[in-house]
Amino acid sequence: MMEQESRVMVGIRFGARIRRLLAIGSALAINGAAFAGEPQAVSVTSKAFAQNPAHYLNQTIAVADFACYRREADYLCSSGKGLDVVASAIEASAAKKKIDEECGEMDGIERKPGCVVDLILTPASVARAQGNVVRKGIATTGEIWIVRAGSISITAHH
Question: Whose CA is closest to 84, among 157, 153, 135, 134?
Answer without folding.
Answer: 134
